[in-house]
Input
Amino acid sequence: MKNMVILTGAGISAESGINTFRDSDGLWEGHDIMEVASPVGWKKNPSLVLDFYNKRRQQLYTVKPNLAHYELVKLESKYNVSIITQNVDNLHERAGSKNIIHLHGELLKVRSQFDQNIVLDWQKDLHIGDVCKHNSQLRPHIVWFGEEVPMLDLAIEVTQKADILIIIGTSMQVYPAASLVQYITPKTPIYFIDPNPNISPSKQLTIIKEKASLGMSQLVEQFLTS
Ligand code: OAD
Output
């Protein structure tokens, strides 16, 4: 089976009703990024940060995977599919995809401030005073700006083995996620699905200027019938 690597960003969840970060109705609107997604912001106003992620977590219970998430699952019948997502939602899991690497963390997990290896499943709101077994405050299991990306090495390893790379709904502005493309071989074809692609086509790169659901339906038909 060929290895198919899928890199997803906020755009794949847009049709599920989750706002992207950098479109005009972006999630950051009304929020200074550094206040809600950085260690400095967390130190300055932890309640604001918890409230921000509690709202994001609550929203997960009101949204569903969309066609693009489900189309990706179909590819597993013919390819060894690995998804590397920048998204902290659980829509790939809920659609049924098997191999998912969350590069930027997960909304439904929290971790200890004392020991980052203490990671707990967490479905409800997180409050000041919710602590780990060492009595240390729990924080969202999200990779904030300026923090290490613990899943990066695994993501690089997976990307290096890609026979085909599909990128869906990302502005390719956030590193190191955007740098993963550098790890594919020169022969690996790249397909980029985004209605407003922030990248230029090349011999190696095919751009599909569509929303994720339509773009994925087209690609899946192509890949499953070829
Ligand atoms: P962005 O908001 O930067 O980019 C979203 C992309 O999705 C844009 O290129 C849009 O054109 C595209 N888009 C919008 N609607 C779409 C649709 N229906 N179908 C397909 N594409 C669509 O989001 P990301 O690139 O994911 O990090 O942002 C990367 C990281 O920046 C996030 O993971 C987050 C943020 O800071 C953390 O939270 C750590």
Remarks:
- Helices lie at 11-14, 33-36, 39-44, 46-60, 67-74, 91-95, 152-160, 212-225.
- The chain has a mean pLDDT of 94.
- The chain is about 30% helix and 20% strand.
- The CA atoms of residues 38 and 144 lie 5 Å apart.
